[in-house]
Amino acid sequence: QGQEKLSCNPKKENGTHVVVCELGNPMKAGAQITVDMELSVSGLEDIGDAITFHLQLRSKNSPSNASVMVTVPVEAEAEMELRGNSLPATTVLPMSWHGVEGSQRLEDHGIKVEHVYELHNKGPGTVSGVTLSLAVPHLLGDHVLLYLLELGTEGGMNCSHHPALNPAQV
């Protein structure tokens, strides 16, 4: 007939979170009630792809305690953005330039170009276990196109280095 707000109390029972809502006492025989519930659950980053609620109707006057399991899919939402820059933005090598074999001087291996990539999470959710694979062409046939000197990271990231990183140890 009318709409009422329920009084619900969260508590823990046997290691699980329980929310108990009082629907009415006493209830008339044959009464039918429709309940709409909105639950807010946090900390679902590592829960998997679904969360299951066990809903149970208990009555002191009835031996039957009807229950139902409701499974709700969990989808994480986060928008990732990759930004990149090269410093300097443009590099032109002269046609007559040749590297010096066996040299330990950086300038004998070419002009320094630094590539910086930033991976940003624009939210709303948090992310973990992100893998960024970056392929850099370092050979053109049998000739060195880019001499890969070093790879650095910031912000607690782990990197695996390519075997062609600084092969001449300059």
From TrEMBL:
It is a single-pass type I membrane protein. One of its GO terms (biological process) is integrin-mediated signaling pathway. It is found in: Membrane. Residues 81-169 form the Integrin alpha third immunoglobulin-like domain. SUPFAM superfamilies: Integrin domains (SSF69179). One of its GO terms (molecular function) is integrin binding. Gene3D superfamilies: ntegrin, alpha v. Chain A, domain 3, ntegrin, alpha v. Chain A, domain 4. InterPro entries: Integrin_alpha_Ig-like_2 (IPR048285), Integrin_alpha_Ig-like_3 (IPR048286), Integrin_dom_sf (IPR032695). Residues 3-74 form the Integrin alpha second immunoglobulin-like domain. This is ITA2B protein.
